């Protein structure tokens, strides 16, 4: 194959973890051009992958509520971009209406999608000429890699390939002055996925005792206030300023340790092979967690939050000693 389009449009963690298939495909088909279709909100992610030639930003929100000529122009432009290349295969790794529409609009003769029973929205099946079934004997990311390798007949390495090249900042972030530092991703979009503030304070104090500065990122005013409450209980901890996704990625790239809930940026830390502890409280650790011995560990599970001691033990298992 000479050209492949991968369609995975959301969300942040899903787009991050799916990037590993690019490394697999390049090894399987030397010289292949791989493009990626994604929601414009997450377009930075495939742009950080040197193995992706073109990033197609689908204006998905405008498809739902077209209100002006500029919306129509953006939609027409995105369709034109989709049809600029003749793809030997289109791989829809999402399986819902919006990804199916993107796949269908390419007019490729070989459009691969999940079998109907495995689709997020079963009506999306109209778009595909070929089907594959995800593997359920592995986590979501490894299962996806295995399903594609079986469909196209190539072998994969057990550990997902590292594929990201994060842009270097124009100036060193202030956080770089506090080395080593740990990023504590306490914030999450769902209340049930949170870990108690008292637990974060206990972990933060333990890190400070070992000479590691805890830094607390945030995305909303509520998350900033939660971070400030944690920092008040941890002498030396700092709440970061509001950062873009790229700035956050640059901080992750410099961090000595990342500890956080099951969120997209913590998945980025695992993809960058940073020492990472991922905390599960309300989602399935076997399905969404990542385990790379000595590098990344996931603890807790759906309905069972880990204790502070479990998190500290997990940190010790991935911590890199001088």
Automatic annotation (TrEMBL):
EC code(s) of this entry: 2.4.99.23
Q: Which GO terms describe its cellular component?
A: cytosol; plasma membrane
What are the record keywords, sorted?
Cell inner membrane, Cell membrane, Glycosyltransferase, Lipopolysaccharide biosynthesis, Membrane, Transferase
Q: Name one GO molecular function term.
A: ADP-heptose-lipopolysaccharide heptosyltransferase activity
Q: What CDD domains is this protein classified in?
A: GT9_LPS_heptosyltransferase
Q: In which pathway does it act?
A: Bacterial outer membrane biogenesis; LPS core biosynthesis
Cellular location(s):
Cell inner membrane
Membrane-topology annotation of the record: Peripheral membrane protein
Identify the domain of life. Answer: Bacteria
**Cross-referenced InterPro entries:** Glyco_trans_9, LipoPS_heptosylTferase-I, LPS_LOS_Heptosyltrfase
Please give the catalytic activity noted in the UniProt record.
an alpha-Kdo-(2->4)-alpha-Kdo-(2->6)-lipid A + ADP-L-glycero-beta-D-manno-heptose = an L-alpha-D-Hep-(1->5)-[alpha-Kdo-(2->4)]-alpha-Kdo-(2->6)-lipid A + ADP + H(+)
Record GO biological process:
lipopolysaccharide core region biosynthetic process
Pfam families, alphabetically? Glyco_transf_9
The principal location of this protein is membrane
What stretches pass through the bilayer?
none
The family classification in the record reads: Belongs to the glycosyltransferase 9 family.
Q: Which NCBIfam families match?
A: heptsyl_trn_I
The molecule here is called: Lipopolysaccharide heptosyltransferase 1
Source organism phylogeny: Bacteria, Pseudomonadati, Pseudomonadota, Betaproteobacteria, Burkholderiales
């Amino acid at each position: 194959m000479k050209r492949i389009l991968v369609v995975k449009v959301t969300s942040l963690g899903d787009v991050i973890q799916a990037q590993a298939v690019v490394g697999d495909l390049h090894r399987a088909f030397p010289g292949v051009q791989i493009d990626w279709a994604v929601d414009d909100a997450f377009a930075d992610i495939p742009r950080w992958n040197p193995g992706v030639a073109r990033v197609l930003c689908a204006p998905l929100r405008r498809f739902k509520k077209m209100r002006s000529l500029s919306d129509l122009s953006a939609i027409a432009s995105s369709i034109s971009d989709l049809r600029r290349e003749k793809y030997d295969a289109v791989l829809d790794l999402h399986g819902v209406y919006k990804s199916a529409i993107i796949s269908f609009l390419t007019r490729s003769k070989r459009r691969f999608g999940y079998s109907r029973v495995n689709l997020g929205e079963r009506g999306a099946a109209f778009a595909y000429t070929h089907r594959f079934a995800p593997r359920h004997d592995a986590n979501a990311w490894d299962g996806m890699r295995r399903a594609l390798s079986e469909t196209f007949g190539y072998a994969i390495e057990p550990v997902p390939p590292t594929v990201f090249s994060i842009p270097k900042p124009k100036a060193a972030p202030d956080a770089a002055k506090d080395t080593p530092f740990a990023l504590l991703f306490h914030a999450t979009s769902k209340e049930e996925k949170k870990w108690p503030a008292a637990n974060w304070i206990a972990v933060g104090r333990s890190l400070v005792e070992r000479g590691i500065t805890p830094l607390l990122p945030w995305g909303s005013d509520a998350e900033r206030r939660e971070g400030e409450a944690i920092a008040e209980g941890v002498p030396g901890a700092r709440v970061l300023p509001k950062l873009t996704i790229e700035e956050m990625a640059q901080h992750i790239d410099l961090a000595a340790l990342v500890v956080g809930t099951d969120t997209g940026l913590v998945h980025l830390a695992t993809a960058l092979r940073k020492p990472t502890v991922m905390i599960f409280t309300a989602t399935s650790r076997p399905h969404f967690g990542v385990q790379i011995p000595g590098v990344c560990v996931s603890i807790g599970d759906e309905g069972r939050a880990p204790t502070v001691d479990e998190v500290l033990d997990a940190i010790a298992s991935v911590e890199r000693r001088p």
